[in-house]
Amino acid sequence: MLATQIQLQQVRNENLRLRELVKDKGPRLFLGASSAMEELSKRVTKLAGTPLNVLILGETGTGKEVISRAIHSQSLRHKGPWVAVNCAAIPETLLESTLFGHERGAFTGAVRAQPGKFALADGGTLLLDEIGELPLDLQSKLLRVLQEKQIEPVGASKPRSVDVRILAATHQNLEEAVRDGRFRQDLYYRLNGATLTLPPLRNRREDILPFARHFLDQVDAELELSAAACELIERHPWPGNVRELEQTITRAALLCESSTIEAGDLELGHLATLATDSPSPLGNLKDAQQSFTHDYVMRAL
Q1: What is the overall mean pLDDT for the chain?
Q2: Which residue ranges of the chain lie beneath pLDDT 50?
Q3: Cα separations in angstroms, 227 against 3, 152, 209, 241, 263
Q4: Which pTM was predicted?
């Protein structure tokens, strides 16, 4: 009984420590507690005070959009708009109009003039997410906009000036794309005034529990993480990075039926059994491999 009470108090103390850590970093721009993210945060602050375009690199789900918001919020443009566009999520036929806008009657269905993302971001910051997916013909038009600081909406008779700082993000290797002819070298150098590279969550495990606590507080600040849940969270590889962690914690918080989230509430497949106090028999190696492969594929899907 005494051992259980001591363990419970240790869990509460750890949750309290994580809450204080997240509170100190600020709720909106919390980037992490590891030394790597501390250095990245300092570089973000330094770059925010410059007019440089910034290229943000990192795996999917590492927080590239959060970094772009941090740069904007600390810049001299923080009172201006912050606008984001995902270049991979918009059909190629609509991407030019989305970026630069169009005039009424410019094409079938254009019943009224529509400003593009550049016009909406005038005086502020524009994030071009998944910039590596931008078609080559639009790359040349984007390069001209960056050089001339003017946009020409589809169907317009003359260009208009815009004052926009560009942040570009991608999970692709743009240097390799340049060598392969899939990305313009001159555009790459225009976008790459400075580079920020976000390490994957598996390479900065000190950040995992603070992030988990941060996401948990956003749903229900009264909930706690059990010792087994914390152990499982730290051991999981998180292939989807911070985004996967956020979804996992949010789901567990919404579906949890008690005041403490246990390892099983996280729904992380076979790894949940590894964090329990009573290990199961080893069983056949071939069966274990098949089970692991099945769970891995299901989580990936």
Answers
A1: 84
A2: 2-3, 18, 21-22, 24-29, 271-283, 301
A3: 13, 58, 11, 21, 8
A4: 0.77
Residues 6+ apart with CB under 8 A from 76: 49
pLDDT value of position 11: 53
Token pair 């989580």 in the structure block, residue = 299
Q: Which amino acid, residue 128?
A: L
Other C-beta atoms closer than 10 Å to the C-beta of 293 total 10
Nearest to 27 by CA among 196, 173, 167, 218: 218
Buried-exposed string 242-281: b where 16+ CB fall within 10 A, e elsewhere: bbbbbebbeebbeebeeebbbbbbbebeebbeebeeeeee
At 38, list the tokens. 């501390």
d(CA 184, CA 143): 9
Residue 16's H or E segment, with its range, is helix 2-25
**Structure letter (DSSP) for residue 121:** T
